[in-house]
Every structure is written in C-alpha cells, then in structure tokens.
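seq as requested:
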Amino acid sequence: MIRLARQRARPRLLLGALAGLVLAAALAAVCLGPLRLAPGTLWQAATGGFADLTAVDRSVLLDLRLPRVLGAILVGGVLGLCGAAMQGLFRNPLADPGLIGVTSGASFGAVVQVKFAATSLAGVSALLGQFSLPAFALAGGLLATAVMHRASRVEGRTVVALMLLAGVALNALFGAGIGLVLFFADDDQLRQFTFWTLGGLGRVTWPKLAAAAPFLLSAALLIPREARALNVLLLGEAEAGHLGVTLQRVKTRLILATAAGVGAAVALAGGIGFIGLVVPHLIRQWLGPDHRRLLPGSALLGAALLLLADLAARLVAIPAELPVGVLTAALGAPVFLHLLRSRRHALV
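struct tokens:
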C-alpha cells in the first residue's frame, strides 16, 4: 500500500516540480538581462503598481520583459504539447509537428510576405502593419493543414499513413517554394528571412502576443481533452474504435488544434526546433506513457526550456543576442541522440 501510494504521488510531485521550474525560470527571465531588475522591483510593481518605478525600469518590465516571458511560456508550452499529441496520434516517438507540414507552410507564408511586402502585397502589408509577417506565417500554416487534411482523407476518414506521406510532400513543396522565392530576394530580404527562421522572442510585443494568444490557448485547452483517446489509441486504431473512440473526430480535432498552435507559435517566434520532439521523450521517461500526465508535463517542460533558452540567448553574448532556435537545436539534438542511443533496442 505504501509503495502504491508513493507511485501515485510521484507524478503529482514531478508535475508540481515542473510548475515550480516554470515560475523560477520566468522570474529569472524577467529579472536578468543587459539591465537587471531586482526582485524587490517586481514585488513593488506587483503590490504598489508601476507608478513608483523609474521610467527605465517601467519600460523594460512592461514593454520588453513581460511580453517576452509570456510569449516564451505560451510558445514553448504549446510546442511541447503539440509534439506529445503528434507522437500519440501517429504512435511514433519520432513524430514532430513539422511532419504534417505546418512549420514549412508557415515559413513559406513568411518568406512570401518578406519578398512581396513592398510590391504586390504592399496594400495588405500596410493594412496589417506589424502583424503582417505573423499573419502570413499563420495563413501559410493553416493552408498546409488544409491541403494535408484533404489529401489524407479516404471515404470520409483520415488515414494516418496518408497524412505522413502528405506531410512529406508538403514539406518538399513548400521547401521548393521557399528556395524559389529566396532566389529572387535581395540581400536585405535574405537577412530578414534568415533571422526569422533562426527563431527568437525579441520581437514579441503585446499586440503580437494578443493576436497569437487565441490560437495558442485554443491548442493548450483542446489537446489535453483528448488525453483519454490518445491513451486508447496506443492499443491501435481498430481496438480504439471497438472501445468507443470516434477516431475521425479525434484526428480532426488534434490536427486542427496542432495546426493552430504550431502555426501561431512559428508566426510569433519563428523557427524553434526540437522542443516538440525532445520534450515528450523526456516526460515519457519520467512520467510514463499516460497522456493525462504526459500532455501537461510536456507543456510545462516545453515552457521552462524555452524560457531558459531565451534567457541564455540574452546573457551569453551581451549586448548582442543569440537566436533562440540555434540554442534549442544545439542543445536538443545531442539530447535526442542520447535518448535514441539509450533506447535503440526498444525502437528496433
């Protein structure tokens, strides 16, 4: 009985520790940087309002740090959550949100906006203003999802194998489109798109965060509701159907939620890799395959990792700032290779 009680308490303790890690990382991200803010300044702002802060502290806290920290929590959490959902849907630990073409579609939308913002799309770009690049990136991600979903349907149902093949084809197609547009781009446009694809949270503002938040929060709220269905899917699609899971509805909801979440994350922060791939692996080792724990755990660890990566990107090369996507890839790839090596016999 004691051992059983400890086994039941362990997941709750780990989830609580991950939540504490997110809070600690958020506090560090708010306080640390080229201009450091004392924790007492935050307490003063939280209890007495921002009127007593100096103009510089108020500007750094409200205009720079807080939107950036909230953006990192939302983007990292949603990427980790969507990665766990895709691995559960495909029943493949190597699955990633990029498999279904959302990331490449969003990148294609971004490069089209960068190239044609001053010519063919000048009117639309002027109308959208600072939302222009995120809007085109999100539109590209949703377009990729619509095409993939249409191509993978057979007699009214979505076939997972066709979904994977459609994602491969879309990644190749959008990759070719990106290369073609970049071939005709000038040096300034190439630098702008390259900086965006490397990923970063430096351009997150309150208006951009408000525009992306509905899509990010929708994914964060909808995907955990499918935890039971994902658990049953581990047995296989036929068995899940016999147990009362409406497979087509589950697939559609997960695909649309993932597309909205990943598309908004890419639109807000650019290309940030490996969080959706590595984070669910780590949580699965710590908490097991139960998606009722795996999904929230992946969201919490994804948020914490992106907060810490963004903090490191700001501190490593002061006053310059490293691209966050470069750090997540540099740290995530070796971790993923180690996980593959440690579990290579189970994957064969």
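Residues 204 and 334 are 28 Å apart (CA to CA).
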